[in-house]
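Run Aminoglycoside phosphotransferase domain-containing protein through structure prediction, thanks.
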Amino acid sequence: MAMNVNDQHVEQEEFRVVLVLPWSGLILAERHGNSLPLPRIIITSRARLAYQFEETARQRWNTAIVVIDILLGESNVSPCAVIEVRSRCWQFTDYGLTSIPIEAFGDTDLSPSECLTIKKIIAGNIESRGPFSRIGWLDDAQAWVRHTVQDDDLRFDTIRQYTATGHFALVRFESSRGSIYWMKAVGVPNTHELQVTQAITRCCPRFVPPILAVRSDWNAWISVDSGQPVGTFSCFALCQQVAESLAQMQLASATHIEALRTNGCFDLRSSVVLRHMPDLVSYLKAAMADQTSAKVEPITPIRLDELASLLCRASEAIESFGIPNTLIHNDLNPGNILFDGRNAVFIDWAEACIGMPWFTFHHLYTEVVERNETHANPVQLKRAYLNHWRLFLDESQMERAFVLSRPLGIASYLFGRDPAFTSPLRHSSSVQRYARSLARHIDRIARTRTFQEALCS
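Sure, done. The structure for Aminoglycoside phosphotransferase domain-containing protein is below.
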């Protein structure tokens, strides 16, 4: 997330790898004397999982693969990646591998329950594991793309898989003719993303990739390639264009708020924020009480109550300006902004909300200005975005609203899709640690003279 003020340590994780030969149903093992263990692959936890497996298989074994599913390891055992080998002519023996039936693996590499699950995956018995937890689903996906574009002769030179579980998929198909298509599928807890994306496409078609087809049994959709992720904002002109496109999209969405809400966008309008501010404070008090690190003092309960009061006053002041509620992208980052050389579009709408539009701009502003990746002029970037709101505010109101909305933009991350703070995930140590860091960031902003003057104006 753009507003994550603490860089997190990049962790690595070892995976056991079950390489399935679909034409025989056999599994590949490494030859180590008299033992035949499963191969292992080290994956960086924060990067795209399936893409890393693809790249590692290509570099290490010179073969094409597709990740079918990830089995969580039992007890202290590492997780297991079930992978379909796509290269039938591959000489795997050249890489120290041999094919054996799954029954030949001892309990040291695969538990009986894992063996049973893998047998079901190979047999196509997916049960509740999802539509992609089976051999051959990628062939079905290619056929779906061909049917969608009405071209049975379409061939794909390059296929890249980025997400891999039984219910989730993200695949890029590049054809021999140069056309590029994406297939995305989502499961729990993001099943709403398909419906949300369809609603945004209807409301703001210029600012999202066109959807070509939807498949309800997969909860999946095919879209046209709409450019490359901006990655890092390499030039200020690009930053400015993204800011302007964001404002234009939000203004276009302002007359569709109820449709967006009923189609799955989470509600972060002022009334909801004010109603759930006590829930936020209670949660942060508990998170601060659970802090074990002595590197920084926890924020006191009294100060948290004060911050809640300041946020409520800021929200009420912004509400009085008459800025319309719009679509919010509550996870905006350079990876989900695409640019094709002319237009910027926005993707990955699992965290779509409705509410104060400037919350999203603050995420972008932090990414560009505070990380200083382009040496961007913050005044010019603000102006590029705020100029689109002159119909609603004069210059002084605009500056005041910009200052007051900044800590509320951070709070929008804390509220997220669970403003009542009822999710059990809220109590995990990593989520609490992240919440504490955001609360400290809000506290620092609230102590600035700029914020205090804006609040008292």
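The mean pLDDT is 92.
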